[in-house]
Structure formats: structure tokens, C-alpha cells
Input
Amino acid sequence: MAALAARLRNAGCVFAEDEARLLALAAGSAGELEALVQRRSSGVPLEHVLGWADFCGLRIGVDAGVFVPRRRTEFLVRQAAVLLRSSRPLVPPTGKAPVVVDLCCGSGAVGAAIAVLAGPVELHAADVDPAAVGCARRNVLPLGGAVHEGDLYHPLPARLRGRVEVLAVNAPYVPSEGIKTMPQEARLHEPRLSLDGGADGLDVQRRVAAAAPQWLAPGGHLLIETSQHQGVRTAELFRQNGLTARVASSEELDATVVIGGF
Ligand SMILES: C[S@@+](CC[C@H](N)C(=O)[O-])C[C@H]1O[C@@H](n2cnc3c(N)ncnc32)[C@H](O)[C@@H]1O
Output
């Protein structure tokens, strides 16, 4: 195991011991282990080599070519779970589960984790990328959720308009110019569509905020992950569309989420 870790460390893996252990557990034979180590050493993200990511304590399937859910996004999930728990009446009037939408869902990690942490919910996830949708289906369908393919809100069932309690969004927010300075793992192995937020990084968030009022239930919440330095501008997008906005952050996870509603 020490030799394996040394190879991975030489290839630039910071958490070489942990990765060596995970790859050894995943391999069914010495030949398979060698193939996994070679893929990882060539710069393929660990999660793509393993086929899964640890997210909020869950094992989320992640296919090659699909955005790898980040630790910092666990903060978005926790904030959504707090809101769902605090808005839930002690005695549910109709027994109807609150509607949760995970927009720009990638692997579906955000929606799946919210459903597990704060369920029961009626979960819908959506993404424009067919590869992401296929991956999200494997993570979300077993939890009773639905996954839709298309641009932002377009593929969601119309019956959800005005009924969404939690709209949780981790859309691309890296300014186009910033992509070239991202780590190679992201630049080479995650689709540009999953990273590039346009000139100021806010192109997709701008469209999400503009249409959110049509989909939120009275008292519903929009949560958008953003970066610390973009937080004020993301909050401004909420206010421009008649929504309240507050910026929540976690130093521990280096995470920023803007939260608002009517
Ligand atoms: C930063 S990744 C986040 C994925 C997932 N929410 C997560 O946190 O792991 C952004 C995702 O947004 C999707 N996306 C980009 N533009 C979109 C659009 N116009 N409509 C729907 N999804 C979009 C990408 O395909 C990608 O899966």
C-alpha cells in the first residue's frame, strides 16, 4: 500500500494514502488495480476512476464527463435541509411532501442528498446535458425522484409552477476567463458547460433568478451556490426579480450560498 501511495503522490495526488486505499478496495484483481492507478496517475479525477463520489455521506454515482460534486456544495444541501425542516408544520395538513427542485443537477447529488437528509420530499432534478441526466437518473430515481432533460426550467412539469418549496441550484459560475486557471482535473475532465458562467460568471444564475418567481410556492426558497466574491452580485440578481436575498457562508467548506424568496 505504501508503494501505491508513493506512486500516486509522485503523480500529484495530495491525499495519496486515502486514494490508494480506495483504489485498492475498488479493484477486483492486481491487473485491475494497475489499470485504476494508471488512470488516476494520468490525471483522471478520483471520482471518475471510482465511478462514485462521497457527498454528504452518500455514495453518488458519477460518470466520466459529468461534473464531480464538490465538498463545498454540501453547504447548499445543509441550508436547504434547515429550511425544509423549519417550514414543515408539526402536523402535515394534507400529508403532501414539499416539492424540491435541483436545477442544473449534474449527477443529481444535491437533490439526492436533500431527499435523504430532509425527506420525504417530491424531488425533481433537471439538466441540459444528456450525460448528466443519465447519471442523475441512476442516483435520483431510486429515491422516488424524477429527472428531466432540457434548458433550465423548460423540461419541468408545468404543474410545478408556483409549488416549489426549495429550488436548489449549483449552476456554472466561473467567469469564462477564469476557466484556464482551473485545475487540470476540472478543465480536461469536466464539460465546459458545467463550469463556464459567461463573461462575469453570472449568465446562468441571471436566468435562474429571473424565472424563479414563477416556480416558487408562497414562502418557498431559492438557494444558489456562488463564490465569496460574487455573493453580492448574485444577491442583487435575486432583488432585481423581487426576491429577498441573504448571503450565507461557511469558512470551513469555503462555501457561499445566496438564499431568498418572496
Ligand atoms: C457546476 S455543475 C453542478 C452540478 C451539480 N448541481 C453539482 O453540484 O454537483 C453545473 C451543471 O449545470 C448544467 N447546466 C449548464 N447550463 C445549463 C442549462 N442552461 N440548463 C440546465 N442545466 C445546465 C451542466 O450541465 C452541469 O451539470
Notes: Residues 67, 69, 73, 104-107, 109-110, 127-129, 132, 151-152, 170-172, 193-194, 204 surround S-adenosylmethionine (CB under 6 Å). The chain has ten helices and nine strands. The longest strand covers residues 216-226.
